[in-house]
Amino acid sequence: MNPKTIKLIIFIVILTSIVLSVYFVSMDRDSIREGIFVTSAAFLTLFIMSFLYKDNPYYKFAEHLFVGVSAAYWMTMGFWGTMMPNLVAKLWPGAVRGVLPALAEKDASYWFVIPLFLGLVLLMRLSPKGGWISRWALAFIVGTTAGLNLIRYLRSDFIAQVNNTIIPLVDKTEAGISFWGSFSNIFVFIGVLCGLIYFFFSKEHKGFFGGAARIGILVLMLTFGAGFGYTVMARISLLAGRMTYLFGDWLGLIN
Amino acid sequence: MWRRTVPIMITFIVGTVLVVAEFIPHKPFGNLGEDFSLYFDIIAVFAFILGGGNLCRVHFSKVYRKKTDWQFSIVTLLGFFVMLAAGLFKIGNPEGIQGDVTAAGSLFADLYDSMFTPLQGTMYALLAFFVASASYRAFRAKNIDASILLIAAFVILLGRTPAPSLIADFFAGAGITFMATAFNFVPTLTDWIMDVPNLAGQRAILIGIALGVISMALRLILGVERTYLGSDSK
After folding, report:
1. A22, A32 in Cβ contact below 8 A?
2. What is the reported pTM?
3. How far apart are CA A213 and CA A120, in angstroms?
4. ipTM for the complex?
5. Nearest CA-CA partner of A199 in B142, B220, B210
6. Closest-approach residue (CA) in chain B for A193
7. A interface test, pick of B16, B75, B186 with most A CB neighbours within 10 Å
8. Domain map of chain A by residue range?
9. Which residue from A minimizes the CA distance to B71?
10. Which residues, other chains included, contact A39 with Cβ-Cβ below 8 Å and sequence gap of 6+?
């Protein structure tokens, strides 16, 4: 059969299925609105899954829709979650009386002219000649990130982690010395030390240093294995969620 | 000067002030970290606007010039504008314009539930299949490193499901007690792997990342690292 004819038949089948789905779901839930939204979610799920067969126009449709919808979603959340309460309400409290009345009575804070100026400067990136001004906003973002992260990482990811690693190697309990607890404590201490030695590239990994780096690799492999297992489980649980939606919420085959 | 020196000075002043502010918990330094984070969030919203503008520019141009697959660009633009209008004007929001933008029953919430959530969820769920095919290649126990990775992943996958106790019950029913004991031990082994070797590896990685972030932050603040400024040719 002509490929164009096959594509047309597939299109007609899908369109008919959509119409039937909207009709039956609407009848089942007494709401055309719900019929449309439930059908939309179900078919978009199927369109994305169709990629497992091969790239096709239905997958591309869903993919392009996702790009547009997610961009608008984050813009909207930024507008109502940050822009209005943290910028407009701070600079011109009276202007938000109609939309955020709780913030309209507060005093104006003119320091917020700084992010307004930097935000507008960032938009200059779209200008062919004045694009370089956007570097000022970028410099502020980079400076803030560097300043905050320097302290944050030093405190929570460096000092705190080193502090938690330096623990008594022998685990004493009321019943005496715990063999398993002591083994675990020694394992953590040596594991962290060897892992760090593996990441130290300024000295050649030879001799005792090389042996320690080798143990570091083995510890890291265990970590990556555990991480991999968890990632696979998370993905499968997402898949199970989508299947539950298709067979439960949409088709009503499972409770 | 305006193109390179001013941005470097901004980065230096902002970064230094934020570091110094940590050591002076009094006004006006005490709240600087919070204030600057808020400024950061506000500028990030402008970046979203920039991103949205750029998205429209690219897809309008694609439609106008009738480039390959231009029809799908119409889908992107339609999705973008419908979702944006629903959110910005809070269309169908039961509490009106003063209500929460994500209030149940609003068009924005319905579009989120019927488009954003299934599309995002399925995109990530699809990765389960690709991970399965990748793991087939990666998990062939070719050497001791790969074998350790394989065993750890297998134990974690097994131990976080009800499967070990079901298998243990089966073996207990068949009278093979040592296998039943072995499978009953799997959840304990999973917890141990997570609490001890995984912790040690994660800690080594975290300390390494922290050292990298600290040195990069210092390079940025002191103006040694300037690649974020791009070149002056544009």
Report:
1. yes
2. 0.85
3. 50
4. 0.84
5. B210
6. B204
7. B75
8. 167-250
9. A61
10. A18, A21, A22, A25, A250
